[in-house]
Design goal:
By secondary structure, the protein is of the alpha+beta class. The chain has 17 helices and 10 strands. The two termini are about 35 Å apart.
Length: about 400
């Protein structure tokens, strides 16, 4: 330990109460930042998973242009066979096929235009939370059954309930007239009125028969266990697609760009509040360091008259602040990591979250994961803020006149 470091450490404890109070402010802010950022990242992961679980999935295989145009002719040949191949060769088995068409749904009293989704009943639950959101009835079990599941808003608009018939009228893939009479076997309630009023799910086999799709479909939806796996799974899927079909793979970021934009907006607003906390801590450090410098004005004047340069004194003040900041960084990070581990094991919830989770088929608690970026991001910024706060007191020493300083009381 060199002389400057020893002096800095000794000077730091001339006023232990003041040092501990300032360090305590840094420790508290570091704990808050580490835990809040980890919770924020955990909440984003949960929000992304829950949003994608309703319908989109983490990845989708589509025909070229289908994402933008949504034309029935832009379809995937032998979609069920390709999906089966992906299940066998990928590290995930949560793969399902969907077809999409638009039709006029008519009951005895009313008619509404809707989107008809062809689904694989045995696999849809692995990629979507809709099968778990049924408020009435049951989900189709037979791939060729003339059964349909609709949203509660659509059921109310059409004035139908479980067991009632709906007539679907639309156009097939080949331009032919598509018509079918189906039985309502289930009604789902996602809590999203636009979704609950606009879609109906039909078994894929029946959908392909009604809309003259043959063995074709429009989407192969893939869901993964963790968001971090998406890039790797995407590369695997691209390598398994038939080269002659020119099929494309989209990840959730490309399928739901508005979701990422919403997260970025939330991050910006959150860091505005975090920034206020960091500025308050920086001013607290500035006050402590400046008081320490002013208290030692006479002492600094004496050592400067003996030949010590203002630059070396300034480095001493910065080193003192750095030591105090390191104490706050280490203690705050350790305590924050402990709290994050505890929350990761027991979960975090706020009043009303369990009822909302049950209502929307979501996890009842947030489980933050301990990782380096959320853990150290806030504390490192606080540490940088403390060093910046030491700049003014250090520069102030360059204006100090030794004679005047020695005369200070």
């Amino acid at each position: 330990m060199n002389l400057t470091l020893r002096l800095a450490w000794r000077n730091l404890w001339r006023q232990p109460r003041r040092t501990w109070l300032t360090t305590g402010a840094m420790v508290f802010s570091n704990i808050i930042l580490a835990v809040m950022v980890s919770l924020q990242f955990g909440m984003y992961d949960m929000m992304i998973d829950n949003t994608l679980a309703v319908f989109t999935g983490h990845l989708q295989v589509q025909a070229p242009g289908y994402k933008d145009d949504k034309k029935m002719r832009q379809s995937i040949p032998n979609a069920a066979g390709l999906a089966a191949s992906l299940r066998q060769n990928l590290d995930v088995d949560t793969v399902a096929v969907r077809g999409t068409a638009f039709a006029l749904a008519s009951s005895d009293e009313r008619s509404f235009g809707i989107q008809v989704i062809g689904i694989q009943p045995e696999y849809e639950a692995s990629v979507s939370s809709l099968p778990g959101l049924l408020s009435e009835g049951r989900y189709p079990a037979d791939n060729f059954a003339a059964e349909v599941v609709i949203g509660n808003v659509l059921a109310r608009n059409l004035k139908v309930t479980i067991g009632d018939e709906l007539t679907l009228l639309g156009s097939g893939r080949d331009g032919s007239f598509a018509a079918a009479v189906v039985i309502v076997t289930g009604i789902f309630d996602t809590g999203m009125a636009d979704l609950d009023r606009s879609i109906a799910q039909l078994p894929l086999g029946a959908f392909q028969d009604v809309f003259s799709m043959g063995d074709q479909a429009h989407e192969i939806v893939i869901r993964v266990a963790d968001l971090s796996l998406v890039p790797g799974i995407k590369q695997q899927v691209q390598g398994l697609l038939p080269a002659d079909e020119n099929l494309v793979v989209f990840d959730w970021d490309e399928l739901e760009p508005s979701l990422k934009q919403a997260i970025q907006a939330d991050i910006a607003s959150a860091w505005f509040m975090y920034g206020i906390l960091i500025i308050l801590v920086a001013f607290s450090v500035l006050n402590t360091v400046l008081m320490s410098v002013l208290e030692r004005t006479r002492e600094f004047g004496i050592v400067m008259s003996l030949g010590l340069t203002p630059g070396r004194l300034g480095r001493l003040v910065v080193l003192e602040t750095m030591l105090m900041g390191l104490m706050g960084l280490i203690l705050g990070t350790l305590l924050g990591a402990g709290l994050i581990l505890w929350l990761g094991a027991n979960g975090f919830s706020y009043p009303g979250m369990e009822e909302m989770a049950e209502r929307f088929n979501m996890p009842a608690k947030i489980y933050p994961q301990l990782s380096l970026v959320p853990l150290f991001l806030g504390p490192v910024i606080v540490f940088a803020g403390t060093l910046i706060a030491a700049v003014y007191p250090a520069i102030r020493l360059h204006w100090l006149e030794p004679v005047q300083a020695m005369r200070a009381a």
